[in-house]
Write a structure and sequence with these properties.
The chain has 5 helices and 4 strands. It is mainly α and 153 residues long. It has 2 domains: 7-42, no CATH class; 48-152. The strands form 2 sheets. A two-stranded antiparallel sheet has the order 1-2. The protein starts with 6 loop residues before the first strand and ends with a helix.
Amino acid sequence: MPNKPASICGECRCLVPDGGRYCIAHLHDNQQTRAVRDREVERRVSGLKLFYGRKQWLKITKPFILARDPFCMIGILCDGEAVSVDVDHIIRAEIYIATHGGDETYFFDPINLQGACHADHGRKTRLERQVLVAGSPSDLDGRNRDAYLAARS
């Protein structure tokens, strides 16, 4: 069986004797990059996460909310002075949809959406995940905690 001809590394442009796309120094780095990308793709194609890639979200809902709420509505870390770059579900999408009989169109309901800066949105999301694990909404800020409790009752 003939050997593959040598090729050029896609990262550093050095010679790759076995004909692969990357030299030994960069082969592992690219495997990690591909693994991260594959995990992200898998995350986006399961459950409600797939809605974030839909045209309804990207072209209509997200731009509308960011225009409606130009500054962060959560305002914990930024005091509401940072520009909104993320869209936050005030009540977790899973809970909000369940309270509306499982109708997935409520994922896009502007009543349950608010603009948020990246720092506050990340913090709120982390706290919500902790609440789901611990079962107590006490760490959420007042407005979101009240909405969370109302949705659970």
